[in-house]
Specification:
The chain is mainly beta. 0% of the residues lie in helices and 52% in strands. Strands 5, 6, 7, 8 and 9 form a 5-stranded antiparallel sheet that branches. A 4-stranded antiparallel sheet has the order 1-2-3-4, with no helix packed on it. The protein starts with a strand and ends with a strand.
Length: 135
């Protein structure tokens, strides 16, 4: 399937894989048209749950969809996505980890790309977003 930059999270006893993918096998141009969300109860059989189309976000039509990430907090599910190496946005689902997700801000969340979410084990379970970038 050409899945790239996968991040797996367990929500409600099910694995959810957030990924982008190469447009075609052997692609060397990093043509990645959208972001995917897959789920599995056994890590063998996978079901496509949602496709996040950049045209339905602040990005607009785009072919350089870099690494996504998922997280949950306060009953909502978040789908972080990278616009190439320029910035990171976030979409939200109020109904569950399968989506649908809609652009939460209508603009970038932060600079950088390839985000990951870290939830501290402090009393507040403080969330952090960590991402790559150039100095």
């Amino acid at each position: 399937m050409g899945v790239c930059d996968p991040h797996i999270h367990i929500f409600n006893n099910k694995a959810y894989l957030f990924a982008t993918h190469d447009e075609k096998p052997g692609n060397t141009e990093y043509t990645m048209n959208d972001w995917w969300l897959w789920s599995s109860s056994d890590l063998i059989n996978w079901k496509m749950e949602f496709v996040l189309d950049p045209a339905k976000t602040y990005i607009g039509p785009w072919k350089k969809c870099y690494a996504p990430e998922g997280a949950t907090r306060n009953g909502k599910y978040y789908f972080y996505f990278s616009k190439h190496s320029f910035n990171t946005g976030v979409a939200v689902s109020n109904t569950g980890p399968e989506g649908p997700y809609t652009d939460a801000l209508g603009r970038e969340l932060t600079g950088g790309w390839d985000p990951t979410v870290f939830i501290d084990d402090d009393a507040k379970q403080t969330p952090y977003i960590i991402f790559g970038g150039y100095p």
